[in-house]
């Protein structure tokens, strides 16, 4: 019970615990040595109060005989995450009549099969104390910046530059938790580097695309919340 209350307080302090809804897009890029994008992946997220739905996709890349490359993102599942009751449910389609294909207890640490464990306090963890960098302005948004490495990085080879928004919005979906909380900000994007190489090797960014849900999207939330109450994890 105490752990659950701490969990809720954390999210409420970050302004997203209750009475909020919206949509966001998480974009991941990988780059070549010249800084050109070689791979992109997207994760769409809908949220309402303490309920989150993630659209999990794969990536198919096909190059034809004319050397034209087509990239598609086939949907694997839609994951319904109930933070309050710590349960997850997977559906085949984003519909209020979608078939349930999986259900499980939401792990405290990380979901190891698919999706983004945005709620986790256990990863990623920064090694040591970040180095503060100068602020930067991008698209009329001011970002604090810091250089650091995660605990799984090779400190002689890898580092990250994180970009932190301090407008008080959307901190539940910060790309890092502990240091961001100390700044009262959220890490909205980062670039990963190899020491000695100017161009980044990877980046990730969380963009809020709406602060509301459509009537159809709300019907999906209502139906899947009802399903979670009627078929809790552990019940067949």
Structure description:
The protein has 236 residues and is mostly beta strands. Helices cover 14% and strands 45% of the residues. The strands form two sheets. An eleven-stranded antiparallel sheet has the order 8-7-6-3-2-1-13-12-11-10-9. A hairpin with a 5-residue loop joins β1 and β2. 21% of the residues are buried.
% residues in beta strands: 35-45%
Q: In order across it, which strands form the biggest sheet?
A: 8-7-6-3-2-1-13-12-11-10-9
Distance between the termini: 26 Å
What sort of overall outline do the alpha carbons produce when their principal axes are compared?
Answer: globular
| Helical content band | 10-25%
Low-confidence stretches: 1-18
Number of helices, where a helix is a run of at least 4 consecutive DSSP H or I residues: 3
Overall pLDDT confidence: 89
Global structural class: mainly beta
Largest sheet: 11 strands, antiparallel
Quaternary state, please?
A: single chain
Order of helices and strands: HEEEEEEEEEEEHEEH
Defining key terms:
236 residues; mainly beta; 11-stranded antiparallel β-sheet; two-stranded antiparallel ribbon; 13 strands; 14% helix
